[in-house]
């Protein structure tokens, strides 16, 4: 029977015992649990990666203005900026994550990975990784399998949805998936890949979900960029062999605990945080449809 | 134990933004509804309820519902420009919103569809449940509950003794498994309406047979919508 991805410890153990790379048991899981052929799985991953690449390209070439006006070609502005604050590669990472996420906000085609709100993170991370290190597509697809394994475990032990666990669950999980994939693709050990997941969760823990006017635009788009950056910083730390101290499964448990205790106003309800600022309330008045029918109060009937 | 997730729920689905409940789910409600109508409508009155009523523009659910009425798949890039395509396709549509239908799910849509050429019309109510999952909960005033993720049969028949068992038998002979069955007599007509979800597709021959039965008035078949 295939590994069921109930926790990171058993994944780690499985790889240690069999000598399999991290992605192999994920592939086996999908074949056994979902009855898909190996070929169909690689094809599906290739299609997902093609859509991600296409989203990056679209976000950096087409007009990206959202209906609300809050998103207005930010990725292209960053790309065209004369100032490079860190390095050209860093700037590219940021533009790609922003661009792909802007495509999502502007009704373009994306891969929800793991969710639509976080759909800029893996494209930004993986396209940049491939570009910088001249990796084959096959290597990126293996990285996607590793990312999927990470998400399966987080889904079971915490959550992947902003409405359930806050933004830490959504962009945090995507960043963790990206970090694990980076370490895997660059030849890091199993322990290092999982350490990258642990470190990323440590960085993203506590982030609330507070989208202005309930739209997946502000702060979602900029958080896709920052989450992509955190994926790289975590991978850099982990691949050097730095110990995250708190084991990855315990980090996931903490993610779940924080998500559970988070008040509902911080869970995609647009009642708290940035969504509850005066400016956000103004925008809400403009964006929300005011001309609607209100039925007579049913309680009094 | 709950069913295991697919890796393509983690890396996927491929979809049109911004969110699966506001775009993918909405597209699917419309695609289910035009299959109930049996053709592409020429006129549509679209009512968004509750949370949808205020947000449908901001989230692009208006584009999504029109795209679904044009039968676009949930990952079709044309969704964003669906209003333009509707014009070309001869589809007229109007929107309205109702803010406080407290007995309804927060993300509910009512579609009143009419095909002027065929002289048919239908009224469908659907809910977008998140993650692109939908429930159709009412057809022409008959309560129902199907997801359009399986194959669905809608059969209007006289309420004769043994009719349900007979229909179940025909389906079983096609080697189809009935997942859910729902008989509703509370509609506007006197006949009973059966909503049957089946796991695998029904053959054309069985459909024809059901349509030829004297006590059967109408059979609509809605293959699973991806
Ligand atoms: S703030 Fe909420 S809606 Fe926006 S990306 Fe984070 S979890 Fe998603």
UniProtKB/TrEMBL annotation, chain A:
<dbReference type="GO" id="GO:0046872">
    <property type="term" value="F:metal ion binding"/>
</dbReference>
<dbReference type="InterPro" id="IPR051318">
    <property type="entry name" value="Fe-S_L-Ser"/>
</dbReference>
<keyword id="KW-0479">Metal-binding</keyword>
<keyword id="KW-0408">Iron</keyword>
<dbReference type="GO" id="GO:0006094">
    <property type="term" value="P:gluconeogenesis"/>
</dbReference>
<keyword id="KW-0411">Iron-sulfur</keyword>
<comment type="pathway">
    <text>Carbohydrate biosynthesis; gluconeogenesis.</text>
</comment>
<dbReference type="InterPro" id="IPR005130">
    <property type="entry name" value="Ser_deHydtase-like_asu"/>
</dbReference>
<keyword id="KW-0004">4Fe-4S</keyword>
<keyword id="KW-0312">Gluconeogenesis</keyword>
<comment type="similarity">
    <text>Belongs to the iron-sulfur dependent L-serine dehydratase family.</text>
</comment>
<dbReference type="GO" id="GO:0003941">
    <property type="term" value="F:L-serine ammonia-lyase activity"/>
</dbReference>
<keyword id="KW-0456">Lyase</keyword>
<dbReference type="InterPro" id="IPR004642">
    <property type="entry name" value="Ser_deHydtase_asu"/>
</dbReference>
<dbReference type="Pfam" id="PF03313">
    <property type="entry name" value="SDH_alpha"/>
</dbReference>
<protein>
    <recommendedName>
        <fullName>L-serine dehydratase</fullName>
        <ecNumber>4.3.1.17</ecNumber>
    </recommendedName>
</protein>
<dbReference type="GO" id="GO:0051539">
    <property type="term" value="F:4 iron, 4 sulfur cluster binding"/>
</dbReference>
Automatic annotation (TrEMBL), chain B:
<dbReference type="GO" id="GO:0046872">
    <property type="term" value="F:metal ion binding"/>
</dbReference>
<keyword id="KW-0408">Iron</keyword>
<dbReference type="InterPro" id="IPR045865">
    <property type="entry name" value="ACT-like_dom_sf"/>
</dbReference>
<comment type="similarity">
    <text>Belongs to the iron-sulfur dependent L-serine dehydratase family.</text>
</comment>
<keyword id="KW-0411">Iron-sulfur</keyword>
<dbReference type="InterPro" id="IPR029009">
    <property type="entry name" value="ASB_dom_sf"/>
</dbReference>
<dbReference type="InterPro" id="IPR004643">
    <property type="entry name" value="Fe-S_L-Ser_bsu"/>
</dbReference>
<keyword id="KW-0312">Gluconeogenesis</keyword>
<keyword id="KW-0004">4Fe-4S</keyword>
<dbReference type="InterPro" id="IPR051318">
    <property type="entry name" value="Fe-S_L-Ser"/>
</dbReference>
<protein>
    <recommendedName>
        <fullName>L-serine dehydratase</fullName>
        <ecNumber>4.3.1.17</ecNumber>
    </recommendedName>
</protein>
<keyword id="KW-0456">Lyase</keyword>
<feature type="domain" description="Serine dehydratase beta chain">
    <location>
        <begin position="6"/>
        <end position="86"/>
    </location>
</feature>
<dbReference type="InterPro" id="IPR005131">
    <property type="entry name" value="Ser_deHydtase_bsu"/>
</dbReference>
<dbReference type="GO" id="GO:0051539">
    <property type="term" value="F:4 iron, 4 sulfur cluster binding"/>
</dbReference>
<dbReference type="GO" id="GO:0006094">
    <property type="term" value="P:gluconeogenesis"/>
</dbReference>
<keyword id="KW-0479">Metal-binding</keyword>
<dbReference type="Pfam" id="PF03315">
    <property type="entry name" value="SDH_beta"/>
</dbReference>
<dbReference type="GO" id="GO:0003941">
    <property type="term" value="F:L-serine ammonia-lyase activity"/>
</dbReference>
